Amino acid sequence: MGARPEDVGIIALELYTPAQCVSQEDLEKFDQVSTGKYTIGLGQEMMGFCSDIEDINSICLTVVSRLMKNYQIEYADIGRLEVGTETIIDKSKSVKTVLMQLFEESGNFSVEGIDSKNACYGGTQAVFNCVDWVESSAWDGRYAIAVSADIAVYAAGNARPTGGAGAVAILIGANAPLVIENSLRASFMSHVYDFYKPDLTSEYPVVDGILSINCFHDALDNCYKTYIEKFNKRSDSSKFSKFTTFFDALVFHTPFCKITQKAFTRLIYRDIVRSKQTEGELNSIPPHILEGVNDEEAEKNLNAFNKIKNYEKSVMEFASAHYERMTLPSLFLAKNIGNMYTASLYGGLISYLISKPYESLINQHIALFSYGSGLSSSLYSIFIKDKPALKTLVQSISKIPSEMKSRRVVAPTEYTEILKSKENFASELPFTPSASPDSLNKGVYYLTLVDEKRRRFYKVT
Predict the structure, then answer these.
(1) Catalytic status, residue 322
(2) Which of the following is catalytic: 14, 28, 86, 312?
(3) C-alpha–C-alpha distance, residues 124 and 83, integer Å
(4) Are 417 and 434 a contacting pair, CB within 8 Å?
(5) Most buried one in 64, 92, 323, 346, CB count within 10 A?
(6) Pick from 25, 54, 7: nearest CA to 435
(7) pLDDT digits over 104-143, tens only?
(8) Before 390, cis peptide (omega within 30)?
């Protein structure tokens, strides 16, 4: 048996988001809500969305084909392809099988993998499946691709501004510059109805917003504890210190940007509680914050943390400089696209990577928290190594900010009309999209027809 692969992780990244968006500031006026409710309260600026000419299959076709072209990868060199999505348009046929048409010309039909579904978590499971395959005895030496993609839309109301649309394709293999520390991933799973889609005739979810935020925080708490426990059980003598000193960046799943500051503050508070309980380094923590930590009631305080607004505000102010350094750079795409569901976390990773020169990324340690309602969650980490592929990766994704500026900003009235027309899509067969492919950029796949048997057909611009 040959040597096992080393430094398994991310070799390349590719993003695709639709060419049109709507301004959150314009939506505030259109919805007649208070100024700043979406832009300040949620932390959003723009929201990307798909017209009826694009669907989950087409955006996945686009992002995978772009990955292969931009990084000059041969389709024959792919041995596994996983898709994480909750945008379900068929209860049986997977998106992965649709993507196999890209492989036909190469003659490569020996590609393992299939779709993973659970709200916003499916993309992370796709990544884990690919990493596990490369590290296993089943690996045949080829690359794996994990695709995270979704189209997030909501019924008219408070949740609609938290929509978005996008896809991220992730090339995974050995000798990667972004090494995934597979032995340290921590997960928390539970049964909750905080967000779900029981109506298979509708794109819109059933949402309990307050419950979902509480579940997000609860999952983060549990993953935090498990990650540290796993780290401290390793055979080497090193022990975990604090998240703010151990990691260079903390990237979160981001349904809306403001939730990341609350989540970051919660981790800082956990660090404070843990430091006090273990008599760790406390000199940098203000006395009025330390006084709010009761050793005997630490867990109780954590559970009530978001209800203690004044104290939470104090911790948030204390943590703000760390947050601006470690998490704020990861929010560029979340602010400008919105919630991409499964792709959200990986949009955050891309945002962080393009926020700095690639040389400064070398030897950085990044923590990623993935959350999917229902619920599934994981906290894992990436270590960045100085390898030639790192420069190629960062240079390739550096074009993204200019692509964001070139999008067409539509009026809220047009956005609303497009969503309303898509609501009636299921009852119209055969269906031909009303939007013109002229609105798409070059190299974008689009839906041309859904026939009387509900089969979907695509072309590329």
Answers:
(1) no
(2) 86
(3) 10
(4) no
(5) 346
(6) 54
(7) 999 999 999 999 999 999 999 999 999 999 999 999 999 9
(8) no
Select which of 21, 50, 120, 257 is catalytic: 120
Catalytic residue check, 86:
yes
Give φ, ψ of 308 to 5 degrees. Answer: -95, 80
SS3 call for 365: strand
Percent of the chain residues past pLDDT 90, beyond the cut:
78
Active site residue 60: no
Cα distance between residue 265 and residue 308, in whole Å: 13
Please state the rounded mean pLDDT for residues 367-389.
Answer: 97
Q: What is the pLDDT of residue 386?
A: 96
Active-site residue, selected from the candidate residues 14, 28, 253, 322: 253
| CA–CA dist 142, 140 (Å, integer) | 6
Helix (H) or strand (E) holding 130: helix 122-135
Alpha-carbon distance values, 342 to 345, 399, 405 (Å): 7, 22, 23
CB 63 within 8 A of CB 342: no
Report pLDDT for 244: 83
Residue-level pLDDT at 53 = 95
**Is the entire prediction scored with pTM above 0.90?**
yes
Structure tokens at 134: 């490369």
